[in-house]
Amino acid sequence: MFRVAVLGASGFIGSRTVEMLHLGGLAEVRPVVRRVARLARLSRFDLDCRIADGFDPSALSAALRGCDMVVHAIAGDPRTIVGTLAPVYHAAHAGGVRRLIYLSTACVHGQAPAPGTDENSPLRRGQLLSYNTAKVRAERILRRLRRRGDVEVVFLRPGIVFGPRSPWVTNFVTDLLRGQAYMVNEGRGICNSTYVDNLVHAVYRAMTTDGIDGEAFLIGDTEEITWADFYRPFAEALGYDLRDVHRVPPCPAGRIWRERLEALRAARPVQALCSLVPHRVRLAALRSSRTSPWDPPPLPVPRATLEMSLLHQCCYKLPTEKAKRLLGYEPIVSFAEGCRRTIAWLAFVGYPVVEASSWLYSHSLPAALQEATHG
Amino acid sequence: MRVGLVGCGAVSAQYYTPALQALQQSGMLQVVALFDPNPERAATLNRSFPRAARLDRFARLADTGAELAIIASPPRYHAEQTIGALEAGLAVLCEKPMALTVAEGRAMIAAAEAASRVLAVGLLRRFFPATRTIRDALSRGLIGDVVSFSFCEGNDFHWPVASPDFFRKDIAYGGVLLDIGVHALDLLLWWWGQPDEIRYQDDAMGGVEVNCRLQLRFSRGLRGEIRLSREWPLLNEYVIRGTKGWIRWEVNEADRVQIGLAGSRYILDAALYEGDEKQPALLRPAENFHRSFIAQLRNVVAAVRGHEPLCVSGEEGLRSVALIEHCYRHRTCMSMPWLSESEYRRARTLNAS
Closest Cα of chain A to B170: distance in Å? Predict the structure, then answer.
């Protein structure tokens, strides 16, 4: 059995990777987290856990020494995405690691990729979302590091990864409970879903398949589903109808600039300048913005973010043929089963699930999914 | 009163230090000694108590003239250090959980009796005005006969622990039940006494439990559930339902409770005040979370002086330890519905081992 270090092991994908590899007896797992408190979730297992910040070369070297494989599942802002790569790669090199599996994202092709997009499509650096640009940069940096180092690199590009603890699910459910859930485009856009177990299965295949150094693979579920299909099981599990979800227009291009200006206005130096405005002027501005006590309480209507606007307008199901051909990847969990497990987890952590499994047999499922569910 | 603080980790830095400083300023006590095997941590706290001696060995505590030892070290040291302090003639306030096992707890109580010294246990929530109000409301039948309860407590873990030992089964002995659950069980025992039946499940798979669930039944037909998590924010509320209404308490809201009366359209969201039994006047806001720490220390000092009864004795502290020990002995594996069948089989094997 080979030994694998999982970086970012306390996160949504990292923790399920540890759980599946360990409980499945697939590998000897060494979880790596950035600080002691992040061990809490992993402490259910008796594992050789290590503490190493992704920016700390010496701590990483100690953590990765003796491992055959490294899974890079560190999440974070663009600085973290890009800045952890060289320290991790060099530590893996020094520690004798054979291969690094990098969890990239399908968003390197944009949130709404053009029809025909596949792994060979060129990646654009200057994308609207800084996350996408950082992930594109990350892949390029790792390719450069590979040219000078011995550690093989494999890139996995999953779509919308969902499952227990997934922000795609918990954010939607939280918004729903607050009356703030929304869909753009009536939820008709394609959701390139990836149940987390399918991604971990791809990780395992990427660790055990020869001759794939430098390759990138799109990873996703078998089923083609829309965003409405994606949200419906979770809404119904909580006793909501998808009709309760706000329909909102996409984020207009002009608002992106307005949002950037808002952020600039809120910045500390700008606020310091604002404080120079006479007190009476500021007070008058504040009074004019107040509502009357006779007004009914406002009903907030959510506004679509740029990211969700683009995702909800996606009209292309990303292909996984290359992963099937070279990795032997085949999704091990259907979308319906993934939803069932995720809903059961929502109940496990106390979300007000009405009935965890009733939606599975409801008429609202697309026929293809009902077939998948009933085998 | 001369006080020695044993263990200079997060709980001492965040809670005991400001509480002790406040009482030191009022002249009630003086911190004379600090002990921690990690000299850096002791040095950090020494800045808050510059006149306190930094001890290199625990055994030197008695030489400092301390009358009260606060044991705030990791739970695995509680028994040894408490007994050591009692045998040296000091009174002790021991942080929760009082001990890892009932046997340890009994030895601590025996040591206190042999030395004729006070042994107090730091179960802070007993000092919250909210939990005291709930106790009064229950005993006076404000919501009628209590039928059921649901205690839900959990968060993404962010306590600034210094060492991975905190999470190791062979060193820490337990997980969320021992750490947070001890509070819930203590309140449960304080409000209703010993349950008749306990069913306990957790998700430990070779390590310590991160999630757990207790189902309890009492002789009067009262049933309820406690759900704890160290990895995910739960509702963080205690709800008690009775025949005439319900009480809801948000975890660690020391000075606030909510009460709903059956048939009423409105809910009472009450901020607590200290008052006078004779006339309905709000004298001053009740103690908040932080000031409850001070109230706890005041009670211990007064009890050591013989001025008032001790609120949480060693015997009281031992009751929740006994329940925890029972739970660990009879643990079964929680349902983890996201696991595949083969994974869950393996999980159950690890949970039972």
Answer: 10
Pair type for strands A152-158 and A99-103: parallel
Same fold: B2-122 with B128-287+329-333: no
Look at residue A374 in the predicted model and tell me its pLDDT. 38
Angle at A54 between CA A68 and CA A24, to 5 degrees: 40
Task: Please give the pLDDT value at position B48.
Answer: 95
Q: Does residue B167 sit at the A interface (CB-CB below 8 Å)?
A: yes
Q: How many CB pairs under 8 A join A and B?
A: 96
Chain B positions in Cβ-Cβ contact with residue A44 (cut-off 8 Å):
175, 203-210
Predicted confidence band at A281 (pLDDT cuts at 50, 70, 90)? confident
Residue ranges per structural domain of chain A: 3-241+309-333
Contact call for residues B339 and B350 (beta carbons, < 8 A): no
**CA-based angle B167:B173:B179, to the nearest 5?**
70
Identify the pLDDT of residue A319.
97
CB contact under 8 Å between A44 and B209, yes or no, is yes
Please write the tens of the pLDDT for every residue from A109-135: 999 999 999 999 999 877 888 999 999
What is the CATH superfamily name and number for domain A3-241+309-333? NAD(P)-binding Rossmann-like Domain (3.40.50.720)
Cα–Cα dist A337/A349, whole Å: 19
- A44–B157: do the CB atoms touch at under 8 Å? no
Domains of chain B, residue spans? 2-122, 128-287+329-333
Contacts of A38 in chain B (CB under 8 A): 157
Q: Which residue of B has its CA nearest to A163?
A: B338
Give the other-Cβ count within 10 Å of B114's Cβ. 11
Homologous superfamily of domain range B2-122: NAD(P)-binding Rossmann-like Domain (3.40.50.720)
| Contact map slice: B 225-244 vs A, CB within 8 A | 227, 229-232, 234-235
- With an 8 Å Cβ cutoff, is A62 touching chain B? no
pLDDT in tens, A198-251: 999 999 999 999 999 999 999 999 999 999 999 999 999 999 999 989 999 998
Q: Percent of chain A at pLDDT above 90?
A: 76
Q: Which regions of chain B does DSSP assign to beta strands (E)?
A: 2-6, 30-35, 53-55, 68-71, 91-95, 119-122, 146-154, 197-202, 211-217, 223-229, 237-242, 245-250, 256-261, 267-271, 273-275, 282-285, 332-333
Give me the CATH topology for the region B128-287+329-333: Dihydrodipicolinate Reductase; domain 2 (3.30.360)
Residues of chain A contacting residue B339, judged by C-beta atoms under 8 Å apart:
19, 23
Q: Which B residues 19-48 touch A at CB under 8 Å?
A: none
- Confidence at A290, pLDDT banded by 50, 70, 90: low
Residue type (1 letter), A12: F
* A48 interfacial to chain B (CB closer than 8 Å): no
Q: Are A349 and B234 in contact (CB under 8 A)?
A: yes
Whole-complex ipTM: 0.90
Residues in A touching B343 (Cβ below 8 Å): 19-20, 23-24
pLDDT 10s digits, B106-161: 999 999 999 999 999 999 999 999 999 999 999 999 999 999 999 999 999 999 98
User: Which of residues 96 through 155 in chain B touch A, CB cutoff 8 A?
Assistant: 152, 154
Establish if B333 touches chain A: CB-CB under 8 angstroms: no
Q: Which strand (E) or helix (H) includes residue A342?
A: helix A335-348
Residues of chain B with pLDDT under 50: none
